[in-house]
Write a structure and sequence with these properties.
By secondary structure, this protein is of the alpha/beta class. Helix content is 42%, strand content 13%. The protein has helices at 8-17, 26-34, 50-60, 71-83, 97-108, 119-122, 125-131, 156-159, 164-167, 182-193, 219-229, 242-254, 268-280, 313-320, 338-350, 355-372, 378-385, 397-400, 409-421, 428-436, 441-445, 462-474, 494-499; strands at residues 39-42, 64-67, 88-90, 114-117, 139-141, 173-177, 198-201, 209-215, 235-238, 259-262, 285-288, 303-306, 330-336, 406-407, 478-480, 488-490, 505-506. The strands form four sheets. Strands 3-4-2-5-6-1-7 form a seven-stranded parallel β-sheet, sandwiched between helices. The two termini are 45 Å apart. Bound molecules: adenosine-5'-diphosphate and zinc ion.
């Protein structure tokens, strides 16, 4: 794609913002908007979203509109912009009629370049008629995830913004959000842009955090060994239950480590005292449930240990993100055991919630397992989950110590063939039953026990086949459908694997032997 050059952007970057270079993908986004394209920019908080619409608005000159859901957010942004000498204003219901009229006068005199307002105000016929007198530079939609019913912050007024494209033809729309989940992104793209939008995801990488996933055999001993190897550093150890938090904190203390506990079942005073100590003193290890961490701002946390598998990759990303905020090297160390996966599945199965919610949670757990089972760079897998592409990092257990891989063509072909001959309509558990030759009621009632491939994989255990199927999904040789049954289907790489010309490397599990069992003490 040709991206026309906009030389003014560098001048504005220096003069209006005082920065000498763009960060991550800011420049690409600015270029796209300046070329008149619609953009969805997904970046975590603090990554520099504001510049992505403020700078093109200034380069284009004239009036641009910023849609924001909350009066407080509008006022904050306008105040910050005014401080840095920019001509920003907000019109909203928190101001008197006179104030709003006065601001509008300034707008008509060309004295405002960024005008903030709510979606419902922008979408009134009156406002739209008034705005036709201007040639708008762009329309920025901040907190764009509010348009998605998937998220927690859905706002019905945001749905009106679907009419924006037709109301202001030819004006580029840039939507911004920190919410990176794919379903939310797809939703924004569809509702706001009818699918016609360039999506940019960036800024999620935290390269100073080293990532390790290790086999879990005896969690207590493994946690203790890891924490001791980081002697005297501040860190957080997450455990799945209050009881495990207490047991682990006691065991670490007994081993001479300054460990404190934190969970929602403790007396509030004790909890607060422990949190206070962790923030104020160096070298404390906080053993906690996920109740700990929201809003904790401590820059020198050197490690985050997950003694149990977290609930999702979003949660994992958030939790490890509490390490190394100062930019210095830090560790994310997770223990991964099949028992945990079973516990997580049970949580989902037993949760009192809508079937749709259960289905999405199950898919999220699958993505997390895929990350734990990864055969190539974990950071690439983690960032890919958020939609950001990257190169092998050299700072995760797999980059530093690649696992032994074997040619998995035969097992892959067997699994893919079976998925195909049964019509691509069964989930992984059922395919595993067929591979291992299990004669349960479902198999018998469908007559699948007479398939030529029935029991063709019986030399391997169910757990091994599950791992193989997960790797095939991760390698896109199979595709796990997102519908109600999670059916396995052929993936885009299936033909390449079936044709068998290329080696297809997978980690072939060898039961009884713990993979990379010595890692983590490094
Ligand atoms: P977000 O809206 O994504 O949470 P902000 O736009 O508030 O993030 O930016 C976060 C911080 O990064 C701000 O202090 C901003 O000044 C700074 N920043 C943004 N872009 C750049 C850049 N290109 N160079 C240096 N600092 C930047
Ligand atoms: Zn890596």
């Amino acid at each position: 794609m040709v991206s026309p050059d906009h030389p003014d952007k560098y001048r504005v970057l220096e003069d209006a913002f005082g920065f000498s270079t763009f960060r991550s993908r800011q420049e690409e986004i600015v270029d796209a908007v300046l070329s008149g394209r619609n953009v969805l920019a997904v970046m975590p908080t603090g990554a520099g979203k504001s510049l992505c619409f403020q700078l093109p608005a200034l380069v284009k000159g004239g009036l641009s509109i910023v849609v924001s859901p909350l009066i407080a957010l509008m006022d904050d942004q306008v105040a910050a912009l005014k401080l840095s000498g920019q001509k920003a204003e907000a019109i909203h219901s928190g101001k008197s009629r006179e104030e709003n009229v006065e601001i509008w006068r300034r707008v008509t005199r060309g004295e405002v370049s960024l005008l903030y307002m709510s979606p419902e105000r922008l979408m009134t016929p009156r406002m739209q008629a008034a705005l036709t007198k201007f040639s708008l530079g762009l329309i920025a939609v901040d907190e764009a995830h509010c348009i998605s019913q998937w998220g927690h912050s859905f706002r019905a007024e945001y749905l009106m913004l679907g009419a924006l494209r037709e109301a202001f033809p030819g004006v580029p729309i840039i939507a911004l959000t920190a919410t990176a989940d794919r379903s939310t992104r797809d939703d924004i793209s569809e509702k706001l842009f009818g699918g016609d939008v360039s999506v940019f995801v960036s800024g999620f990488d935290r390269p100073n955090i080293s990532i390790t996933v290790a086999d879990k055999t005896r969690a207590g001993a493994e946690i203790e060994r890891f924490v001791k190897s980081r002697g005297g550093q501040s860190g957080i150890v997450y455990r799945i239950s209050r009881k495990k938090v207490e047991d682990t904190a006691a065991a670490l203390s007994a081993a001479g480590i300054r460990a404190l506990a934190y969970h929602a079942g403790m007396p509030p005073a004790d909890r607060a005292a422990n949190q206070e100590a962790f923030l104020a003193e160096p070298g404390i290890v906080m053993v906690a449930t996920v109740a700990f961490g929201m809003g904790i701002d401590k820059s020198d946390v050197r490690f985050v240990v997950h003694g149990d598998v977290p609930s999702s990759l979003e949660a994992y990303y958030q939790e490890i993100g509490r390490a190394g905020r100062d930019g210095e090297p830090a560790d994310a160390y997770m223990l991964y055991g099949l028992e945990d996966v079973r516990t997580r599945r049970r949580f989902i199965d037993e949760a009192d919630c809508e079937p749709e919610r259960r289905r999405v949670d199950a898919l999220r757990l699958d993505a997390l397992i895929g990350f734990c089972e990864a055969t190539s760079c974990r950071r690439v897998a983690l960032l890919a989950y958020f939609g950001e592409s990257s190169q092998a990092c050299g700072n995760c257990d797999i980059c530093l110590d690649p696992p032994a891989l074997a040619d998995g063509r035969d097992v892959a072909r067997l699994a893919i063939d079976l998925v195909r001959t049964t019509g691509e309509r069964y989930g992984a558990a059922y395919i595993v039953s067929l591979l291992t030759g299990e004669t349960n009621d479902m198999v018998l009632s469908r007559g699948h026990d007479s398939l030529p491939l029935f029991a063709a994989g019986s030399s391997r255990k169910k757990a091994e086949w599950r791992s193989i199927l997960r790797q095939l999904v991760a390698a896109r040789a199979l595709h796990a459908e997102t519908g109600a049954f999670g059916s396995l289907m052929l993936g885009e790489k299936a033909e390449a694997v079936l044709s068998g010309n290329q080696e297809f490397l997978i980690r072939l599990p060898s039961p009884g032997k713990s993979r990379r069992s010595k890692r983590g003490s490094a």
